[in-house]
Design a protein that fits this description.
Layout lengths: L1 H13 L8 E16 L9 E9 L6 E3 L2 E5 L4 E5 L2 E13 L6 E9 L7 E8 L12 E5 L5 E7 L4 E14 L10 H26 L1
Antiparallel strand pairs: 1-2, 1-11, 2-5, 3-4, 4-6, 5-6, 6-7, 7-8, 8-10, 9-11, 10-11
Helix pairs in contact: 1-2
Length: 210
């Protein structure tokens, strides 16, 4: 019995720890509007949009401010805005899960189009408890204006054009993991436990046969 127990714990020590690996997809989709602040000089209110990117599942924050953690994304953000296809450069993700009130996810990036490079920030207010801490993690949530919104600023002929428009739609990181696909470490743990149970059962049978 001691030998079996020793073997069991040796198997556990060699198993990979359950956890995420690789990259997680980031998806934000919805409709812009209404105008919350500023002037919608380029008429984005009412436009549908998608923004997709990816982040390393094991990413470490590049900055921390209070309870907000800042992360670099893995590559650019691809955006469709109405009939336009754009690229968001130097994207960052900011996650915050305060002890009270809603959680937040902020996606910011710059867009180079027609010689301009406006900085865009999407502020997504998530239901409280959506995030467990401020680390990178899968989640799916619906968002709505005015608590969720996008801001942008670009130079005009005489002054900087600034606008804040509501966002109504859905946001996710990693989507919803399939329940039928356990982690490799979990599979190994179940196999080790099953092997130990079978061995113990066989030992009991031999003991009764004596």
């Amino acid at each position: 019995m001691k030998l079996l127990a020793t073997a069991f714990f040796m198997i556990l020590a060699m198993l990979p720890a359950p956890g995420m690996a690789g990259t997680l997809d980031i998806d934000v989709t919805g409709v812009l509007g209404p105008v919350l602040q500023g002037s919608d000089a380029i008429h984005l209110s009412g436009a549908t949009f998608t923004a997709t990117g990816a982040i390393d599942a094991g990413a470490v924050p590049i900055g921390i401010s209070g309870g907000a953690y800042v992360y670099d994304l893995s590559g650019d953000v691809q955006i469709t805005l109405g009939l336009l296809t754009l690229t968001g450069y130097n994207p960052e993700l900011i996650l915050s899960a305060p002890s009270s009130g809603p959680d937040t996810a902020i996606l910011d990036f710059s867009v180079t189009e027609y010689g301009f490079a406006p900085v865009v920030e999407a502020f997504l207010t998530l239901p409280a408890g959506t995030l467990i801490g401020s680390g990178v993690q899968p989640f799916t949530a619906s968002v709505s204006e005015p608590d969720s919104y996008v801001t942008y600023a670009l130079p005009g002929e005489e002054d900087v054009i600034y606008a804040s428009l509501g966002i109504t739609g859905d946001a996710s990181i990693g989507g919803t993991p399939p329940p039928s696909a356990p982690e490799p470490g979990t599979v190994g743990l179940l196999a080790a436990g099953l092997a130990l149970a079978i061995a113990m059962k066989n030992m009991k049978k031999k003991g009764h046969g004596r």
